[in-house]
Amino acid sequence: MSISLKRVRNEVQAILVEAGLPAYPVVQFQPLDVEHARNPRRYAQVRTGEDPRMEVAGAIRDLPPEQRLGLYSHEVGHFLWPAGGEDDADMAAQGLLGVHIGYDRRWPGKGLQTAILAPKKLWRIVGEPVGARIRAANGFPRG
Ligand SMILES: [Zn+2]
User: Fold this and answer.
1) What's the gap in Å between 42 CA and the centre of ligand 1?
2) Structural domain that includes position 12
3) What distance, in Å, lies between the first and last C-alpha atoms of the chain?
4) How far is the CA of 52 from the centre of ligand 1 (A)?
5) What band does 142 get if pLDDT is binned at 50, 70 and 90?
6) Residue 135 belongs to a domain
7) pLDDT, tens digit, for every residue of 17-37?
């Protein structure tokens, strides 16, 4: 089930604020839709520096809460540590948001960012995880 772009924007901005950052703009970016069609890992990217913003592919709206939270947290990690690399973004997300990011190997290469463990207040932003193991690890009831 797909969510609206407005909801994606609200979720990302709520997480930016949780990270102590401004609610930067979140926009659907057509070239990323094209890239996503070729490389299914490409759902989001950030521009830091002047005019900071997050750009997303429309397909991000189809992902379950744990993968949206993993992706958002990784991208927020890039804002938190603009000079850092990919692992640094995950480290920043873990240190400053408390989100532990794993990689779902059903996606190619390194896999797709997935929140494995996160504070309840962040699950309240995106909704309860769908993955049974992630639900259990975060203390949600079975089902
Ligand atoms: Zn990245």
Assistant:
1) 10
2) 5-125
3) 17
4) 15
5) confident
6) no
7) 999 999 999 999 999 999 999
**Domain assignment present for 138:** no
Place of tokens 């990217």: 45
Confidence of residue 140 (pLDDT cuts 50, 70, 90): very high
CA of 141 to the centre of ligand 1 (A): 32
Q: Measure 45 CA to ligand 1 centroid, in angstroms.
A: 7
Whether 143 has a pLDDT exceeding 70, the answer reads no
CATH number at residue 38: 3.30.2010
Ion ligand 1, residue ranges at CB < 5 A: 86, 89
DSSP secondary structure, 65-100, as one string: HHHHHHHHHHHHHHHHSTT--HHHHHHHHHHHH-PE
Residue 11 is encoded by which pair of tokens?
């979720």
Q: Is 140 within a domain?
A: no
Rounded to whole angstroms, the Cα distance separating 108 from 94 reads 23
Distance 142 CA to ligand 1 centre (A): 32
CA of 44 to the centre of ligand 1 (A): 8
Does the residue 132 lie in any domain? no
pLDDT score, position 82: 95
